């Protein structure tokens, strides 16, 4: 099963992805984590993208497209991926479809976690004390949320049209969301 988990920064995508990963034996593919690793490992790409990430803007579709193809083309992960933080734009959504087709795969479900800007701000400030991410300031969080609002609508419409979209109340507790997600996954597993 391939799953897309969608939502603004601080919606709980990472937390829920880890839960699904363990419960259903899937692999989380977080483009944010992959990009941060490039920065941490001081690669050429890392140097190129660090100022973009720290300003709250999106990295180019081409760069993230290359990173995810490495993962999708790996047979160990075939039809076992949770896409966390990808796609974020309609271009990326179409690119993902093309890549999955190329490697004979598909998306089974898109889980959208809905949360308000107030909740995003609160969660990101909490996360800052734990993960010490440079882009987790209130100002950058607002910018990332606004960017999300701008680019997410066509992506959501795209998945709504293909009947893959399930909207989840991301304001609920972690365990309530776990239960809801499990129910949705079990329903399509049949
Ligand atoms: P995240 O960990 O998902 O919150 O992502 C952190 C940052 O990485 C974002 O604010 C973007 O700058 C960059 N990023 C992550 N995923 C993508 C993506 N799919 N497209 C473009 N930029 C991304």
Structural features, described:
The chain is of the alpha/beta class and 190 residues long. It has one domain: Rossmann fold, CATH 3.40.50. It has helices at residues 13-24, 31-40, 44-54, 61-72, 90-102, 117-131, 138-161, 174-189, and strands spanning 3-6, 27-30, 81-84, 109-114, 165-169. The structure holds adenosine monophosphate (AMP). Adenosine monophosphate (AMP) binds at residues 9, 31-32, 35, 52-53, 56-59, 64, 85-86, 88, 92, 135, 144. Adenosine monophosphate is lined by residues 9, 31-32, 35, 52-53, 56-59, 64, 85-86, 88, 92, 135, 144.
Write the layout of secondary structure elements.
Layout: E1 3-6, H1 13-24, E2 27-30, H2 31-40, H3 44-54, H4 61-72, E3 81-84, H5 90-102, E4 109-114, H6 117-131, H7 138-161, E5 165-169, H8 174-189
Parallel strand pairs: 1-3, 1-4, 2-3, 4-5
Helix pairs in contact: 1-8, 2-3, 4-5, 6-7
Adenosine monophosphate binds at residues 9, 31-32, 35, 52-53, 56-59, 64, 85-86, 88, 92, 135, 144.
């Amino acid at each position: 099963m391939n799953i897309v988990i969608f939502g603004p920064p601080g919606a709980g995508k990472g937390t829920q992805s880890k839960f699904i990963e363990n419960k259903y034996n899937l692999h989380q593919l977080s483009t944010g984590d992959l990009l941060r690793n490039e920065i941490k490992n001081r690669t050429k790409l890392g140097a190129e993208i660090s100022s973009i990430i720290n300003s709250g803007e999106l990295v180019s579709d081409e760069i993230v497209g290359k990173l995810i193809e490495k993962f999708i083309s790996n047979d160990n992960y075939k039809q076992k991926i949770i896409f966390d933080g990808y796609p974020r734009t309609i271009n990326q959504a179409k690119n993902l479809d093309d890549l999955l087709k190329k490697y004979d795969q598909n998306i089974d479900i898109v889980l959208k976690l809905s949360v308000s800007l107030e909740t995003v701000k609160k969660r990101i400030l909490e996360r800052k004390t734990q993960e010490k991410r440079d882009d987790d300031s209130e100002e950058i969080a607002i910018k990332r949320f606004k960017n999300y609002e701008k680019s997410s609508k066509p992506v959501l419409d795209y998945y709504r049209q293909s009947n893959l979209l399930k909207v989840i109340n991301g304001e609920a507790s972690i365990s309530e969301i776990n239960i809801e997600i499990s129910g949705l996954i079990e329903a399509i597993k049949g």
